[in-house]
Amino acid sequence: MVQQQVLDRAFAALADSTRRDILTRLGEGPATIGELAEPFGMTLTGLKKHVNVLESAGLVTTTKVGRSRECRLGSERLDDVMHWITLYQRLWERRLDGLEAYFTLEKGTDE
Amino acid sequence: MTNDTATHTLQMSRFLPATPDEVFDAYTDAEKQKIWFSILDTEPGIVEIEVDLRVGGQQTAAWGASRDELFRETQIFRVIDRPNRLVTTSTGSTPDGQTMTTEIEVTFAEQDGGTLMSVVQTGFPTAELRDYFSTYAWVGAFDRIEAYLTRE
């Protein structure tokens, strides 16, 4: 399914240490391709390839600013997963709270 | 997802003042579920539950504030060991059409005259992300997660 494929791409993107370092750098704020390439000692072309992988995985978004391309963190994929965990946490809390109230009321009625 | 993908586990447990038989039956019976699922609701909403309690059978549930906002969950029963254990495959779907399939194991253990009901839900594909965040300082990420989880 589409969502699973998107998540596959996110995990594949995170499997590379250079791409993780790029994300760490972008965690400090947006940066252009040139600014990102310098500390890694990479060519612009090499760094662009990594950014493209991160962008297709939804982990990074890029915007053209003048003659440069600015990169920033995109947290859409993370939000997707966290959204589900939150939904299920709330569902289980609701179920367990409901059961507890159900039995507490039932026992209270018996006495 | 491949089988090699590590997954996140959601675990919760609660002590309930009833026997494992009573808890198991209340948890799996459709009519009882309709009662306790909404028992604490302050505003009326939609709750629909159907249960075919047999291995390979399924439980379908839909709930929400209105027809346009229904969250749905289908659980297929894999193991039914009344009143000790229930294993299901759950597929949840949101009103906007997203789905997530996970495995759920619920156990009912007798404890101090009541029952400790425990839930273990596996299959959330988040371990890589979680490991990444714990290894690398992604500035602000934890704040965002915390804000997301605690938002009202």
Automatic annotation (TrEMBL), chain A:
Keyword DNA-binding: yes
Superkingdom assignment: Bacteria
Database matches in SMART domains: HTH_ARSR
Keywords tagged on the record: DNA-binding
Domain HTH arsR-type residue range list: 1-93
GO MF, one example: DNA binding
Protein name: DNA-binding transcriptional ArsR family regulator
TrEMBL record, chain B:
InterPro entries recorded: ASHA1/2-like_C, START-like_dom_sf
Domain Activator of Hsp90 ATPase homologue 1/2-like C-terminal as annotated: residue spans: 18-149
Name of protein: Uncharacterized protein YndB with AHSA1/START domain
Family: Belongs to the AHA1 family.
Source species: Conyzicola nivalis
UniProt superkingdom: Bacteria
CDD domains assigned: SRPBCC_CalC_Aha1-like
Signal sequence extent: none
Alphabetical list of Pfam families matching this protein: AHSA1 (PF08327)
